[in-house]
Amino acid sequence: MWRLISNALPLRSNIGRHIKGFDRTCILCGLSEEDNDHLFLKCSVVKNFWFYSPLGVRCDVFGSVTELIDSWVSHNEEAYKLGACLIWNFWKARNRKYFDNEDMCFTKINKAALRCLNDYSSNFLEEGTIELEIINSASTSSYTFQWVPPPRGVKKINVDAAFKDNKFAVAAVARDSMGSFLGCITVIGITDSVETVELHALILGLKFSSRFDNNPCWLEGDSLKVISWVNDSSSKPPWRLENQVFEARSIITNSNTQCVSFVRRSCNSVADLLAHFAFQYSVEDVWV
Ligand SMILES: [Zn+2]
């Protein structure tokens, strides 16, 4: 990350400054000069990569790659660490394409980034400063984080679900940049799988967002599996869930939702408590 921020990576634009006649064109799209902002933010390939990554970034919101990194730093440390691992593995995949002519696979990069994050977290685990937990079979770090408000002008919706004996409750909570409560909603029902319920929660949150102003929306949930399905178009959700995944993707494309991100459970505690409350007392209601 230091080399990226200092513009010290051997990008084609940087090499071209020292070697006369060196081809500076981006090897991924072949359309623009490969510099920091192009390769990591503006290239059509990296735009798709970010959108379908677990961080669900919409690149058009940012003017430069340092702005993107700043947004993680001010958003939460978890996003920054995952973002750094994604950038590192995207860079390695770019090098494999350049030197070995290996096709880029976003799913592979995402998995390698999560492994990288897990390795990093394991080092801290030995020092006893953090706990490690396995979430939906993918390993990620988990720190004692709290919910972090979105930037000014953005609303954040947290979603979660409770599920037992085929009964479920899903909840969505909307808050603004001051952390003020905007509204919440719960729905209860019957179904047969926890993934169906987590997707139900996510779709509820996406739809709930339209009840408020037209400002951009960030959605957060703690089901990494479901968020990866929705963000990564190359992922393969079970066929019985495909319609729900497509519905979620379509709402995201046609709404002001800027990102759908994974957060650990402690950052999602209000939505978690609300879902459990709705489950326990069979409450289906809207508070705005
Ligand atoms: Zn490009």
Q: What do these coordinates show?
A:
With 288 residues, the chain is an alpha/beta fold. It has helices at 2-5, 12-16, 36-42, 44-51, 65-75, 77-100, 106-126, 194-209, 224-231, 242-253, 269-281; strands at residues 131-135, 138-142, 155-164, 167-175, 181-190, 217-221, 257-262, 285-287. The strands form two sheets. It has a six-stranded mixed β-sheet, with helices on both faces. A two-stranded antiparallel sheet has the order 1-2. α5 (65-75) packs antiparallel against α6 (77-100) and α8 packs parallel to α10 (242-253). The longest helix has 24 residues, at 77-100. It starts with a helix and ends with a strand. The protein binds zinc ion. Zinc ion is lined by residues 26, 28-29, 31-32, 38, 43, 45. InterPro entries: RNase_H-like_dom_plant (IPR044730), RNase_H-like_EbsB-rel (IPR052929), RNaseH-like_sf (IPR012337), RNaseH_domain (IPR002156), RNaseH_sf (IPR036397), RVT-Znf (IPR026960). It comes from Macleaya cordata.
Sum up the structure in keywords.
288 residues, 2 domains, 11 helices, Nucleotidyltransferase, domain 5, two-stranded antiparallel ribbon, single chain, alpha/beta, binds zinc ion
